[in-house]
Amino acid sequence: MSTLIIIGAQWGDEGKGKVVDLLSERAEVVVRYAGGPNAGHTLVVGDDKIVLRLTPSGVLHGHTQCVLGQGMVINPAVLIEEMDTLTERRLSVDDRIFLSDRAHLILPYHVTIDSLREESKEGTKIGTTKRGIGPCYEDKVGRRGLRTGDLRNLDHARDRIAEALATWSATVEALGGQLPSVDEVMAPLEAQAKRLVPFITETSTLLEQWARGGKRIMLEGAQGTLLDIDHGTYPYVTSSSAVSGGACTGAGIGPSRIDRVVGITKAYTTRVGEGPFPTELDDADGQHLRDAGHEYGSVTGRPRRTGWLDLAALRYARRVNGLDALALTKLDVLSGMKELKVCVAYRTSTHEHDAVPVGDFFDAEPIYETLPGWTDDITACRRIEDLPANAQRYLAFITEKTELPIDIVSVGPRRSETIIRRDAFDG
Questions:
Q1: Is 13 among the catalytic positions?
Q2: Which pLDDT tens digit goes with each residue over 114-154?
Q3: 265-420 has which fold?
Q4: Among candidate residues 81, 126, 131, the one with its CA nearest the CA of residue 105
């Protein structure tokens, strides 16, 4: 196998960074294909913690080529800051980072608009990170966005920015804000262009060449299935295609090139922002999951909402992503809990559903089964057989209900604290 998609199977924050980092040891190319700096991947290397917001996690491995695909939205200031941080840590970025010339740029006015909307008392609060993601995608769809390739012609970039500012002016005025001038946007962008233009290229062509050459390519998702613009809990979703199908459009690679799709899930469930969450816990168990799992946003620091594992939602993720296997993270967080509830279906006002019901969870009451917990510290376990019997039973129950094998089990935050049952590239 040469091309693998790693996808979030919940509401994001599933621990994709660690899994992608582990698999990058075998990958030769790692591609980020959607989202922007609202998605932070936290990687623990020894006693060092690194948070990546735009750069693919594979950058920590010196042999890996890293691609920022055309489906992404890039804040140039954030990307430059991140590249400088990597360089300071003696991680090379030259000739290793390839930035698609078709990715769209998040500019200061996108951040302003995002913040004004979220802080307004009118309308539906989505709970965004206020990083300008949504407005940037709106400009993309509205055909007035600025792409990275436009940085090669700053006169053209100026015209595009003027058009966007004219379009947004009425919205910002109505929200009580003020837009920057074209000159105020262009001043930092000119300096940023000098830094980024050497990294900009036609990445789709590179990926096709690498795929034809048999290189092991890993496509790294951002956010999660239930935040997908089409398949998530709309309108409480992100603005991009977070499912496996988005990997093809966001990276510029044909579907026939995809060999395998692995979904990442926590041993429980979390989400950030507003929207339905059937298994949410607002009690001591929920706080235990939050504290033991360090469930605070890697970018924003916001406390995440926590709840029991939702297998009905995982079955939905299996269907819309075409999952071949699961990677399960943070099993260690459940240690010390006497009982573990698992959602196996939903009940609504009309009938029961074994996957996501019509209405996207808004009328869904979880149907639970209860499994016994365990008290042992499992961070030293390196085989499934080393786990406590009840932890093994928990994993077997997940496999039974989702009909998916669990290839990887994370039993702690460090790279070494992982059980690998099957190499994801070998299938």
A1: yes
A2: 999 888 755 566 767 788 999 999 999 999 999 999 999 99
A3: Adenylosuccinate Synthetase; Chain A, domain 3 (3.90.170)
A4: 131
